[in-house]
Design a protein that fits this description.
This protein has a domain at 30-68. Helix content is 37%, strand content 14%. It has helices at residues 30-39, 54-59, 61-71, and strands at residues 41-45, 48-52. Strand 1 (41-45) and strand 2 (48-52) form a beta hairpin. The chain is elongated. The N and C termini lie far apart (64 Å). The structure holds zinc ion (ZN). Zinc ion is lined by residues 20, 22-23, 25, 53, 55-56.
Length: 73
């Protein structure tokens, strides 16, 4: 019986961690990866997941909106 509170809740290590398509950053550990899946912006290009981290979402918000606009034409 381990008294420590560190419980391994059957982690799903097979899940790929998201990588920011803009700056290339990636979560350092599984906890950060789980958080990133919730907080990062996710899009799909050519059937692949495209992630944008919080920093880039803010920085490139204007250019992203510009891209969306041009995509309609
Ligand atoms: Zn980024």
């Amino acid at each position: 019986m381990a008294a420590s509170g560190a419980t391994d809740a059957g982690s799903t290590a097979s899940e790929p961690r998201p990588v920011c398509a803009t700056c290339g950053t990636t979560p350092a550990d599984d906890d950060a990866a789980a958080l990133a899946r919730i907080t990062w912006a996710r899009g799909v290009e050519n059937g692949r997941d495209v992630w944008t981290c919080n920093t880039c979402s803010r920085t490139h918000l204007r250019s992203i909106e510009g891209k969306l606009d041009s995509a309609w034409w």
